[in-house]
Amino acid sequence: MKRGKLIAGVIGLVLGIAIAFFIPTPQGLSHAAMVVLATLVTANIFWIFNVIPNFATGLLMLATWVVCNAVPFETSFAIFSTTTMWIIIGGLALGAAATKTGLITRIAYKIMSFFPANFKGQSLALFISGTIIAPMIPSAHPKAAMSTPIAQGISNALSYKPKSKASSGLFLAAMWGFFVTEGSFLSATAQNYAFKGLLPTKYQGVLSWGNWFLMMLPWTLIILVAGYMVLNFLFKPKDDTPVSKEFINTQLADLGPMSRDEKITATAILLAIIMWILESKINIPSAVTALIWVSILVATNVLTADDFKNRLSWSTIIFIGTVMALGNVMQTVGLTTWLRGILKPVIGPVIGNIWIAVIVLPIIIYLVKFVVVSLIATGTLVTLALLPLVSEMGFNPALIVIIVTTSVNVWLLSYMNAPFLTGSAAVQDSMASRAALAKSSIGYMAINIVGLLICVPLWQLMGIA
């Protein structure tokens, strides 16, 4: 273990032990609440400095609650029997099938073949193909690892120099389309389900697949239109004359005709999305829908036992489950009530008005990202800080999840966004300059707030703001 991690780990443990056993219990809190608070402090230090793998920290946190008699085992680990966990597993399995069969790559290249072979045309193609593919793969890293090599192939075909303006722009178009649009669809990333799972149960129903898509539609349009304009303004080369589409046509030809497994996977994903949209009408939970189609993929041998072992990130699934457990346990031991009294004077004015919230909360999250690297850890911290104040909010608390989801995806500095690092590593860090990343992130940060503001009238019409 590196020295920095070791020091952070020792500090985290000392603080946790001190809070749980030596600091006098404040009025209004029980010893159980102090144990939960202590483990939350320790866990966050471990997550921020990556002392040990994130999922291991989460499991130790849940186990500590049981060992210290803060809550019983059934309460501590209850989240692992919920529908939220099973839809994450099912969604990841559907995404694994789409990646394994080559369906995603085929969709991307096919869309690109319809657009001019220049910067404007292919950056637009990456935006559109990424947005279509986003809800099919609920994991950011595979999408980042898959999309940037496609962008690199286009960049090379257009004779753009490595890390030039144009090369940087195509890299960012790929990440913008495939990754940034994760905020548009509930199923586009497992962390959306994780943030949703932190909410009290009575508010989670608002965030069905269809509702999420509708609530985010204005934001999606703004993100795509304004993002495309920003990237073209910053990175389009002076000479943007279309060239031959030979690269794209060659890639499509190499794929050959659509395979049996691709056809089965495409059908499964399409019907799963339709069933998610119609969840309230057909009365089939989203998790059950996902598992039905995953089972069909297994029965048809599209997915195998080895795929479940190697293609699903079980450490990520466990980590998300441990994070989601926090919301229920904090409420059980009375920690949310105590925090409400402390935070209300400071945050109350912000969350009392949705117009103020969609401006101030993203800015707070942007600042937190300078310290907390993990996207899900940042979102969890902010969401948990606000949960005690749900009764004070001038809008449905489900909107907190929306704001958090869109605002954690910043990449101003390279360490702030792990999926961007994955995308860059997939092309040997040869496409985008650090300056280009910073400029585009500033653009996204501003566009995100504008997009959220434009959503507010729709949210008001829906009765949730």
Automatic annotation (TrEMBL):
Query: Which compartments is it annotated to reside in?
Result: Membrane
GO (cellular component) term, any one: plasma membrane
**Entry keywords, A to Z:** Membrane, Transmembrane, Transmembrane helix
Q: Name one GO molecular function term.
A: organic anion transmembrane transporter activity
The topology of this chain with respect to the membrane is: Multi-pass membrane protein
Would you say which domain of life the source belongs to?
Bacteria
The UniProt transmembrane annotation reads 32-52, 59-80, 86-109, 169-189, 209-235, 284-305, 312-330, 342-363, 370-391, 397-421, 442-462
Please cite one Gene Ontology biological process associated with this protein: carboxylic acid transmembrane transport
Q: What is its main location?
A: membrane
Q: Which family does it belong to?
A: Belongs to the SLC13A/DASS transporter (TC 2.A.47) family. NADC subfamily.
Q: What is this protein called?
A: Sodium-dependent dicarboxylate transporter SdcS
Organism for this UniProt entry: Levilactobacillus namurensis DSM 19117
